[in-house]
User: Which sequence fits this backbone?
């Protein structure tokens, strides 16, 4: 595979990953949102494997496989279980509705290009061109966390943010060292499991999973 | 070898306690572990302060800065763990055995994650461990399982996770800047430090902003502090003591590691301005909330925001004395704040309320608790002869030379905090205690270890023992000051 070919493929897949982050905003059912996350993780795993093959890195290949196991199989299952258990899947009330949210996404993407393009320009790797896309994905994931009230959607926003960071590191330096990447997967997995427990606790205590209800602690 | 022992003891203890059925055995394992970890930590510190740098298993490296953190973690870990036995007996009876097990097990997992964070040389592993500290403590914050503790724990989990995710962007960017120079080992702080002069300055600038926001969230700096008053006030007292006195410093430690690299690649001005900015803002926010605080645990929590701000100011003022004062203040704040949070547990057990208005006549109703609370508060607000006075003095003395106006504003804010907190303490200590309470301290015997905190606060306030000064000087050398 030539560097040019890789660069094109990486751009395409990164674009798809960003698109899936934005899809999370458009989708209103929780199952659909979980699906968007799972799909994005598939794209990332593909990217990791692709770059691993290009650079001949066995470790990166392992990272891709681990990512697929944790983020395509296990975490979506946990989330779907939570959605089924709390019995709520309708519109996840955001603070901002879809249209203004999409305008903010566009703005965040522009900011991402503004910040990242100069940094990517000095990077010799063929994957560097897509770095602004990854950064946009990070910023939009952040925005989703702030904008959504549902605990489950906040978790998804967190996961999208995490995915965006993984993508950024992958594009910038072919990923951080293997042991770190594995540690990050472990942390994310444990975090999601803990968050799942909290979704149940919140549901039991407040009879809703609207985190806007959480407002007792003040000053 | 001793380094790996230090890490393995708490990890194994956490696993063993999780498998234990009898409460007495859990408590025994818990206490023995805490003392053993302190022993290992002390041994490591002695090695390092004799000029060695301990290295183990590629990932771990302990220099003087790490050693200082190890001592703070293991010492206060031991103090809090002894009190925790008594406190948990009072809070959770035999019907709550699973929660008792969870508490003791997570306590040591918490110590383990902090120890990994400060002993690893790999900045990625440090990140993993610091995220681990959040995950280990979130159920501890929610130990009481009330609505308010649930809310506090959820906020803590989400906000800290997001904050730390931003720190990971910073870490990845630094790795990217370093990989161009040093290859795969660029994730190691020591390699980065060596190559710091040749790193891409645009990347480092962006990275450090993310680091300040990310690890600043863990360090409880404004405006990323919003989770802190909730989590620190809802957690059980021994955990509050460790979260406020120790965990915040782990966040600061991470910032310090990056600062040491950034100072070389960008010059000291860049990091200094950012640190002064967040430091001053933290002081301002804390002062605003401390003036009329109604809950004494929240008061202590906001005071942590204040003191983290003071430490950042010291780091920002820079120079030999600014940094020296900041490190000294890290130690003093840790000693005073852990003492106060533990004492606050005693007050809570006695009065069954965390509201300042409900606590009256503390000195009369619980003399030992009241006296320790008074001593701790006087130390915390910076009165001589206690050590925080000396470190604050050193910090602002350094500030007068480099940033006089900022230092003046900082001192003014300190005075406001001083007045606000003193008024609250006054209301709690004197007056008539509710008649039905009776006299006597709830857990008097369990307060005994705090005598060590108290003694150290006095000793460090009156003299600067030469081994301690030498240790701080070594840390300054590590930081390149």
Assistant:
């Amino acid at each position: 595979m030539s560097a040019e070919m890789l660069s094109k493929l990486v751009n395409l897949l990164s674009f798809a990953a960003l698109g899936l982050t934005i899809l999370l905003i458009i989708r209103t059912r929780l199952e659909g949102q979980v699906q968007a996350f799972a799909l994005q993780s598939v794209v990332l795993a593909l990217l990791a494997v692709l770059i691993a093959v290009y650079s001949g890195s066995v470790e990166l290949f392992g990272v891709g496989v681990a990512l697929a196991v944790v983020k395509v199989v296990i975490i979506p299952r946990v989330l779907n279980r939570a959605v089924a258990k709390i019995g709520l899947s309708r519109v996840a009330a955001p603070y901002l509705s879809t249209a203004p949210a999409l305008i903010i996404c566009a703005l965040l993407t522009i900011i991402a290009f503004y910040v990242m393009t100069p940094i990517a320009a000095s990077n010799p790797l063929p994957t560097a061109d897509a770095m602004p896309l990854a950064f946009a994905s990070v910023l939009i994931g952040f925005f989703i966390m702030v904008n959504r009230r549902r605990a489950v959607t906040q978790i998804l926003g967190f996961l999208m943010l995490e995915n965006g960071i993984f993508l950024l590191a992958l594009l910038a330096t072919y990923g951080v060292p293997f042991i770190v990447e594995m540690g990050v997967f472990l942390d994310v997995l444990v975090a999601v499991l803990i968050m799942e427990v909290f979704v149940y606790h919140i549901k039991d205590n407040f009879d809703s999973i609207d985190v806007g209800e959480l407002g007792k602690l003040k000053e | 070898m001793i380094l790996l022992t230090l890490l393995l003891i708490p990890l194994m203890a956490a696993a063993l306690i999780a498998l234990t059925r009898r409460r007495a055995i859990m408590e025994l394992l818990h206490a023995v572990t805490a003392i053993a970890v302190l022993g290992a930590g002390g041994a490591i510190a002695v090695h390092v302060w004799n000029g060695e740098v301990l290295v183990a298993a590629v990932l771990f490296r302990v220099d003087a800065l790490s050693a200082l953190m190890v001592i703070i973690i293991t010492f206060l870990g031991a103090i809090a763990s002894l009190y925790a036995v008594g406190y948990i007996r009072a809070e959770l009876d035999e019907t709550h055995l699973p929660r008792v097990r969870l508490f003791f097990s997570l306590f040591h997992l918490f110590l383990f994650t902090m120890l990994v964070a400060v002993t690893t040389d790999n900045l990625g592993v440090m990140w993993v461990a610091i995220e681990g500290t959040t995950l280990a403590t979130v159920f501890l914050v929610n130990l009481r399982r009330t609505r308010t503790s649930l809310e506090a724990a959820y906020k803590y989990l989400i906000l800290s996770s997001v904050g730390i995710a931003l720190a990971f962007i910073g870490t990845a960017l630094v790795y990217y800047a370093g990989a161009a120079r040093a290859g795969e080992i660029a994730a190691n702080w020591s390699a980065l430090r060596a190559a710091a002069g040749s790193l891409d300055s645009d990347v480092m600038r962006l990275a450090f902003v993310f680091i300040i926001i990310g690890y600043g969230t863990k360090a409880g700096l404004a405006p990323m502090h919003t989770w802190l008053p909730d989590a620190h006030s809802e957690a059980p007292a021994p955990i509050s003591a460790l979260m406020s006195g120790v965990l915040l410093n782990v966040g600061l430690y991470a910032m310090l590691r990056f600062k040491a690299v950034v100072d070389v690649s960008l010059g000291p001005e860049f990091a200094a301005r950012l640190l002064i900015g967040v430091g001053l803002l933290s002081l301002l926010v804390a002062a605003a909330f401390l003036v009329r605080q109604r809950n004494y645990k929240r008061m202590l929590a906001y005071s942590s925001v204040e003191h983290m701000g003071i430490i950042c100011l010291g780091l920002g003022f820079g120079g030999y004395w600014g940094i020296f004062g900041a490190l000294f203040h890290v130690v003093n704040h840790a000693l005073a704040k852990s003492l106060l949070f533990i004492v606050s547990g005693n007050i809570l057990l006695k009065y069954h309320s965390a509201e300042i208005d409900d606590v009256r006549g503390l000195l009369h109703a619980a003399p030992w608790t009241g006296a320790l609370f008074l001593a701790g508060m006087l130390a915390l607000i910076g009165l001589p002869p206690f050590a925080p006075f000396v470190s604050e003095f050193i910090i602002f003395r350094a500030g007068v030379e480099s940033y006089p106006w900022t230092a003046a504003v900082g001192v003014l804010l300190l005075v406001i905090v001083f007045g606000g907190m003193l008024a609250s303490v006054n209301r709690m200590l004197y007056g008539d205690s509710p008649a039905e309470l009776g006299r006597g301290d709830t857990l008097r015997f369990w307060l005994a270890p705090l005598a060590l905190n108290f003694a150290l606060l006095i000793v460090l306030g009156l003299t600067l023992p030469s081994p301690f000064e030498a240790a701080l000087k070594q840390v300054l050398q590590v930081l390149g000051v």
User: Anything to note?
Assistant: Residues 58-86 of chain A form the longest helix (29 residues). Chain A has a mean pLDDT of 86. Chain A is about 80% helix and 0% strand. Residues 13 and 43 of chain A are 6 Å apart (CA to CA).
